[in-house]
Amino acid sequence: CSDLEQIRAGLEHSVAILAECANQMRRERDAVIAQLQAELQALHKSLEDAQYSARLDASTGICRKNEFLRMLRRKVVGGEAVGIAYLRISNFPMLCGISHPTAASEVMGAFLRRAKNVLPASAVIGSWDERTWFVLSGADSLPSLAKRLRAACVGRYVYIHQGAGQTFDLSGSVGCVAPNAGEDVDSFVTRLDWEISEADALSLAGGSD
Predict the structure, then answer these.
(1) pLDDT digits (tens, 9 = 90+) for 178-201
(2) Taking the model in full, what pTM does it have?
């Protein structure tokens, strides 16, 4: 019996060692899997950040036109009641024609800061082109947003040239457009383009609210 007990004890000890080895291997495997998952998530996050950054204007951090349209399409297809308020800068060529090299960037930087200060946090600001700026928001708030853009963003700006303050009076037109019932995004964008072209000839003082 003593020999059987010794054999049994030896087997139990071996089984215990094997079980501990198996548990250790399992813990190490789980740790490796967790590390790989964390690294994969970090790679996904980096990729998403890179893709998002590619959709933004490098100098302003504002949505580019393609990203803006993608967001608009997603909201319209999802049935959200959204629309666009816009501001078209009518004398942008004059701003670009100022000989001071940083005048345009200083004025546009101040322009965007003013816009962000009067818009709700949920509103998305995008650029159609360098002269046209859009706000994507709820359809019921569009007229109010257009008025806020006009009041805050159109007017006198100051930039520094040779240590002295110089002024530029920015003018433009504002408007707001929302998709009609049953209107698809492509038709809406075509109508939006048309309205902007019509508004382009207006000065803000005589433009629509």
Answers:
(1) 888 888 888 888 888 888 777 665
(2) 0.60
